[in-house]
Structure formats: structure tokens, C-alpha cells
Amino acid sequence: MALTSEHVAAAVRRAAGRLREIEAQISEADAALGDGDTGLMLRRLFDRLDAAGPMPSVDIGETFRALGLAGAGATGSSLGTLIVVALLHLSKATVGKREVAWVELSPLLDGALRAMMVRGKASLGDKTVLDPINAVARAISDKQLPAEIAAAAIAAGRSCLLEFRDRPCRVGRARMFADKSVGRDDPGQLAFVAILETICGG
Amino acid sequence: MKKLMNEPDGYVDELLEGLCAAHPSLVAHERVVRHIDAPRQGKVGVVSGGGSGHLPLFTGYVGTGLLDACAIGDVFAGPSVQACVGAIKASHGGKGVLRLYGNYGGDRMNFDMAGELLEAEDISTTTVLGTDDIASAKPAEKDKRRGVAGIIYAYKCAGAAAATGADLKETTRIAQKAVDSARTIGCALAPCQIPGAAAATFAIANDEIEMGMGIHGEPGIWRDKLKPADAIATEMMDRLFAELPAGGKRVSVLVNGLGATPLEELFIIYRKVEKMLDAAGLQIAQPLVGNYATSMEMAGLSITLVALDAEIERLLAAPANCPFWKV
Question: Under an 8 A CB cutoff, do B77 and A28 touch?
């Protein structure tokens, strides 16, 4: 068994559902230092991604491409655009494949992470969504079975969120309030971990 | 905060529908607004884009002698890649397209991606970023400054150049020169709220102001008790004088309302601005007072000074027409 387009579509559906539940929580986290609209933006974006299904192809690269293009028309926010960049990178990396072995998940995530860093001009440690993605990619690098990958991913995501809570933000608008960002969750990190828990949680 | 709206998700699309219905010179397709005559064959296209919530910026400057098209994002969010691609294509008349927008992360990412996508379609593009907000970074880091109200001078000059046959390289030079000539500083009195957002963009006491605050509530230089208008104008002008390019004797000035400040109060500020420019031996050309770049219901103002030379002044005086600015 391996990762297929069906898995990707199901993950998007579950993420969209979860974001409808936590939209207010994410926006509230954003409102402390930002515009207060991150939950709204993510809910809208994932509603559009979900609506892009059912996926037109069993080619997993085509599936990621369809999602990336749907996202490219749905958002222009920095976080939203980085998600689009990740989807388009995953598309290029998997085009022509009907399935991807679970052991390939870590390098795929790592590649998407690099693409996001280049486009967003942010670094690891800046207290952004990049940090938990990196933590998850590292944590699952030696895992082969879906269940152990899911468990390691959730643990790494949660641990990263906790670790960064007491660090200052170093990029974007929140960097201007670096002191105030200490003790607060970054809304992008918070949303990523919530989505991760939903996708990997069963 | 109270808002005249239906569902938050429909806010941007409904405002664009109304804007284009009221101004038939504008045509909207999804999140792209173009002039009814765009693309104009044989003319360099000038496009901009950015988040909604700043009208007349950005969409309101689509017109003749100004922008050909504009990509629109959600409130205070950059335009999507797809919208940026659409705006560039909508303005491409075979001579290339200038991308002229404010220096913000989301806008940069999406216009950059759009330019890369369109390379395959053989559409030449150049980029000039608005960076006129002097409070957003020190002079040594000018390239990190945000673009605010001063970008409308770059729209005007680049639009005039393109309308009179300048090629892409020349239109780009003019736009960069206009950006380099403009300096803006803002002052906020009260916040705004994004439709559907959890809270206002920032909190400020009723008797406080923040000097240098950005148009999305980005932190400024200081926050203190409200002062008399003349004192506020004096500090803003002193900070602008300190950064105004040296040499010229003529300037243009824009006293801009952020959305909720009465025109009356903008003219009280302008009264002091005019006296200070006169005392400094500077002559004013084409003064503007009004709401040219707003932040929804944010209260406050910005002042923009533009150092003029013969070329910039000629381009500012060239004919132009859009829903919010006619020359």
C-alpha cells in the first residue's frame, strides 16, 4: 500500500472540514499580532481545494497540480501562496506516478519545504509554518509504515508548536512585534498542527 | 465594528460588481479589473495589484493615462497568482508589461510567479516596487520599505509615459524615478477591521495616536496622546523634509485620508502643510487632498511629498482619467 490520489483527496476533505471548525480559533491567534484573518483565509482556501475534487486523475502529480491551480486562483496571502507553492512542487515531484511509497513522504515534504523557503524568503527558526513542516519531515524520515509515520508526524508537530511558543517571531508582520510574539502560537504553525492531527489521526 | 455588507466571503466580489456597474470604463473578470479599452495594441501595459480595502487604491486607478489593469486580492491580502497572470495578459498590447505594486510579501510572491509563468508565453515584464513609506524602514534599508499612498504618483507618471509611446524600458525608468521621488508618512487615530476577522487590526486608546503606522496597522515610530493638528502636521512634514531628495524647488503634495477622517480635518492639516512648504521655499504643483489610498474605516491620514523635476512635473500634468482622479 502507498500514497495515492485518493489519500490526497481525502486529506484535503478532512483538512477543509477541520478548518471550518477551527476558523475562529486560528483567526483569534492571528488577531493578537496580525490582521486576524488567517483562519478565514485558510478556510476559504481549503474549501476551494476541496471543491476541486473529485480528482480528475489517478496520476498523483496531476492531482497535486489540480489542487495547486485551484489554490493559485483562490488566495494571494503569503501563507496561502506558500501552500500553493508546496502543492505545485509536489506535483512536479510526483507527476506520472500512480502511487508514492510511504518512505518517499519525508523527501517529498522536504522538497516542498525548500520550495516554500525559496519563494517566501523565510528561514527555519523564524517561527513560521516552515518549522513544523521541517520537524515532521525529519521525524518520519526513518519510518516506513503509515501508522508509525502518522504517530511520529503528530508528535513532531505538537512538539514543534510547543517549542516555538516561547520564541520570538522573526519574519513577516509579526516580527515587528517580536517581544509580544513570545508566549503565543504562530497561527500558521497552529493551523498546520491541527490539520496534521486531523489527517493523521485516523 | 459595524459594516455595510452581506456575507464576508462575498465582500470583494460584490464591491467589484458595484464599482464596475458605477463606472462602465472598468471591466471585471473574477479578480481582474481592466480598462474597457485594454489591452491597447502597441502600448506598454501598466498593471498593479494588491489587497482590497484600500479604495481608490488599487483598482480605482485603472483608466486612461494610468493603469491598464489591476489584480485584486481579498481584503488586506495579496492578489492570487491567477489574478496577477490575468491582469498582465489583460494589459499586454504586444510591447510588454510593467508590474508596479507595493512592496509586500504576498504581492511580490504572486507577481513574481505570474511573471515566471508568462515567460513561456513570450510576454516581457518588468517590476517596480512602491517603497515610499519612510516609517517602515530606515534610509539605509530603503528597499525594505512598504508602498503606500505615494505609489499613485508612479501610476500617473508611468501611465502618462506609456500613453505617449514610451517603450517598456523607458516606462520602467519613469516609474522607478517617480517612486524614488516620493516620500510618505502616516498617522493613525483608530483601527479598522477586516470583514469576517476576529478583531480590529490593532488596538489603540481613544485619546492616542500612532505616528508612522502602516496601512494595515503595522507598528509606527511612537504612540502617544492625541496632539493638535498643527503639531501632528509639523512632525510629519519635518520627517518628510529630512528625507526629501535635495535640489528641487517644486514639490507635489498629497494629504490623504485613511478612510474615516473627515475631509475638513484633512484641509486643516493641508493649511499647515502649505505654510511649511512655503516657509521652506518650496512651490507646490498639483496638490491633492482627499481619500486616495485608504484602510477601510481606519481613522488618520498620510502625507506624501514628491520632489519634482521638469520630467516628472510634465508627466503629472499629462491628461489622465479614472474613476477617482482626473487631470
Answer: no
